[in-house]
Design brief:
Helix content is 55%, strand content 8%. It is built from 24 helices and eleven strands. Strand 3 and strand 4 form a beta hairpin. Helix 14 packs across helix 17. The protein is elongated. Its EC number is 2.7.7.19. Keywords: ATP-binding, Magnesium, Metal-binding, Nucleotide-binding, Nucleotidyltransferase, RNA repair, RNA-binding, Transferase, tRNA processing.
């Protein structure tokens, strides 16, 4: 539970930090107001770590530059058109913005930039009340015109003004609401939630890049499933990630299968737990989390109801990989992320053949070869994909995967499995066969790779002998 006395003490300590006190003195000496605003105030009151410091002031951009230049080791004005000046003061990066009183045209989410003249007016135009608080410095006066403290205590997300007006000004705020439920663990108040449902289609004026950015920030939180549920329940997911709500398949009274939507959310949670246990303290693995969320999106398109009550989803892994690639491209994800996610989805079922019967060493090598650099992620995704309530089956699958990981490690130690290359490279193949670069070199390389995968290391002399035999047979 939020302890407000402790929160106020933390806020006071923040105000006395070197960077804040240095800036506060400089602006006061120049005759301007200055306040810490938004997330840093909220996080200090919640007892969370405070990272990036944002300030607001009645000073115009030129005046801000004039004040910070003598006390900053670096400064930049890339956001000058929006009233924002960046600087590095006392070793920390800060942004200082002139009070804003923007207006929106309702057609795009780009505001008409207008500078305001009061702190309260600036705060009221922000996204949520918990982000619409400020601490005046150096006087340490908390300014909260919209009830942000009460909403912090209640664990509630609410817009400072009518949510229809707030979301109408900037529809991206609806995605931020979902993200903050994951980040802060708060609930969205009824009026705000209802407005998100009503205005979900206005999201089409927001660029794919902005939507992608909010989705990534949500996936980087400790509990993204909370936000995903909000996106699905409000209908927002239909606007930019329809494959996820489509997982809520209708259940035929004669054909029963697991709830694919709930299964996918469970897989995401379990993948995050495994990620933390295997790589504690590391940054969230967004490609892994995307793959966990989307790994079964091919199921709706491949579902077949069989006689006798069975349900099949043949090749949903291949279908899902194609769908994921198309969706991530539409959301402007970078090529590497898209490639990794699609590959993990394509391979996520491969292990279950191993669970049915032990693989040969050749099959293990091919599993490693096909996974390539994504083997560790595939380990996590495959383990997370086990959500059965049947304890005997779950234990069998867990032990099978323990076994395959142990065998991979054993083969790796024996053969440097991660290299997974033939014993003759392209240049040596050309020398042995007396041929020039071309298609035949690639075919010979693949022939030798199959030997490597099937038999392990046979030695360079033996590889040459077999290569010559293969080439003679071709001739």
């Amino acid at each position: 539970m939020l302890n407000m006395a402790e929160g106020v003490a933390r806020l006071g300590a923040l105000a006395e930090s070197p960077v804040v006190s240095t800036l506060a003195r400089a602006f006061a000496d120049a005759g301007f107001d200055l306040a810490i605003v938004g997330g840093p105030v909220r996080d200090a009151l919640l007892g969370r770590d405070v990272h990036d410091l944002d300030f607001t002031t009645d000073a115009q951009p030129d005046d801000i530059l004039r004040v910070v230049k003598p006390i900053a080791s670096a400064h930049w004005d890339i956001g000058r058109a929006f009233g924002t000046i960046g600087a590095k003061v006392a070793g920390e990066t800060v942004e200082i913005t002139t009070y804003r009183a923007d207006s929106y045209d309702g057609v795009t989410r780009k505001p008409t930039v207008e500078f305001g003249d009061t702190l309260e007016g600036d705060l009221v135009r922000r996204d949520f009340t918990v982000n619409a608080m400020a601490l005046r410095v150096p006087g340490k006066a908390l300014v909260d015109p919209t009830g942000g403290v009460e909403d912090l205590l209640a664990g509630r997300l609410r817009t400072p003004t009518d949510p229809h007006v707030s979301f109408g000004d900037d529809p991206l705020r609806m995605l931020r609401a979902a993200r903050f439920t994951s980040q802060l663990g708060f609930e969205i108040d009824e009026a705000t939630f209802a407005a998100m449902i009503e205005l979900r289609r206005t999201l089409d004026i927001v660029s794919p890049e902005r939507i992608q950015g909010e989705l990534v920030r949500m996936l980087q939180t400790a509990a993204p499933v909370r936000g995903i549920r909000i996106l699905v329940e409000t209908g927002l997911a239909e606007e930019f990630l329809p494959e996820v709500p489509a997982l809520r398949l209708e259940v035929d009274e004669h054909h029963h299968h697991k709830d694919v939507y709930e299964h996918s959310l469970t897989v995401l949670n379990q993948a995050i737990e495994l990620e933390h246990s295997r790589h504690p303290g590391e940054a969230p693995d967004v490609p892994l989390r995307l793959a966990a969320l989307l790994h079964d999106i091919g199921k709706p398109a491949t579902r077949r109801l069989e006689p006798g009550g069975g349900v099949t989803f043949h090749h949903h892994d291949i279908k899902g990989a194609r769908m994921a690639r198309k969706r991530l491209n539409a959301l402007r994800f970078d090529a590497d992320t898209t490639k990794v996610v699609a590959r993990l989805i394509e391979l996520h079922l491969r292990f279950f053949g191993y669970a049915e019967g032990a693989w040969t060493d050749s099959a293990v090598r091919r599993y490693v070869r096909d996974a390539g650099d994504e083997l560790e992620r595939l380990h996590i995704l495959t383990r997370a994909d086990v959500t059965t309530r049947n304890k005997r089956k779950a234990n069998r699958l867990r032990k099978a995967y323990d076994d395959i990981e142990a065998r991979i490690a054993e083969l790796d130690a024996q053969e440097q499995l991660d290299a997974m290359r033939p014993e003759l490279d392209g240049n040596r193949i050309q020398e042995v066969l007396g041929i020039a670069p071309g298609r035949e070199v690639g075919e010979a390389y693949r022939f030798l790779l199959d030997i490597r995968l099937d038999e392990g290391i046979v030695g360079a002399d033996e590889a040459e002998r077999r290569l010559r035999e293969w080439w003679a047979a071709r001739a």
